[in-house]
Amino acid sequence: MTPFSRRAFVTAVAACVVAGCGGGDAPDPPRSGATGPPGTRNPAVGSSADAPRSLGRSVPVGLEIPAIGVDTPVMRLGLAPDRTVEVPPITADDQAGWYRHSPTPGQRGPSVLLGHVTVGAYGDGVFRHLARLRRGDGITVRLENGTAARFAVTSVRTVAKADFPTEAVYGDVDRPELRLITCGGPLEGDEYRDNVIVFAALSATTP
Fold first, then answer.
1. CA-to-CA distance for 171 and 188, rounded, in angstroms?
2. pLDDT at 23
3. Residues 6+ apart with CB under 8 A from 155
4. Domain containing 170 — which CATH number?
């Protein structure tokens, strides 16, 4: 991540990553065993010494999470005119978005994907059940070059937006990792109080 994009992410992501998530019921609580500290190593993935090799840069175009029924295209997100992080638009065909100032999935470092938990009058968002994921669940990201990066969940956290763990989400790591972010917790007015953050590590790649 360049110094500019890193600064932009620091100042914007905690406050604006989930704009438009208000409305509807709170998401289902995590299943038993779903939570854990960031950076927890998944035995199925292994340490950085024996993890799959990093991939070259290729933009994500699709995301599959079988455990929660997600199969969505992925759009590119940047910075809004006010220098906050963009989020996917509120539409009936809701989809996830990749923050283009983060590494692409499979590159070394944390690749960040955002999605809504609800999309207003359209109902459930693409990340409605993100908090149901548990350690070891698989995530596949389809890339523009035709390859796929497969990740395994290492931890899931629900945190107050006021306490967003910025360094844990965007900070440098020594292997390819993934971050999925949405709203969570109870509604306070028209906004959810919390963020749900999934941490995952690269487990395999396929041509």
1. 29
2. 33
3. 35, 36, 37, 38, 39, 40, 135, 198, 199
4. 2.40.260.10
- For CA atoms 7, 12, 13, 17, the dihedral sign is negative
Going by C-beta distance under 8 Å and a sequence separation of 6 or more, which residues neighbour residue 157?
A: 35, 36, 38, 165, 196, 197, 199
What's the pLDDT band for 153 if we cut at 50, 70, 90?
very high
Residue that has been written with the tokens 């993100």 in this structure: 130
Q: What is the mean pLDDT of residues 160-164?
A: 93
Q: Quick one: DSSP state of residue 172?
A: -
Q: Rounded to an integer, what distance in angstroms lies between the CA atom of residue 154 and that of residue 18?
A: 22
From CA 121, how far away is CA 67, in angstroms rounded?
Answer: 25
The answer to pTM > 0.70 is: yes
Q: Residue 98 sits in which domain range? A: 3-206
74-98 burial: b if 16+ Cβ within 10 Å, else e: bbebebeeeebbbbbebeeebbbbb
Number of structural domains in the chain: 1
Q: Is the pLDDT of residue 171 over 90?
A: yes
Mean pLDDT value of segment 133-158: 98
**What is the C-alpha radius of gyration for the chain, rounded to an integer number of angstroms?**
15
Answer whether 151's CB lies under 8 Å from 178's CB: yes
* DSSP, residue by residue, 62-90: EEEEGGGTEEEEEEEE-B-TTSPBP----
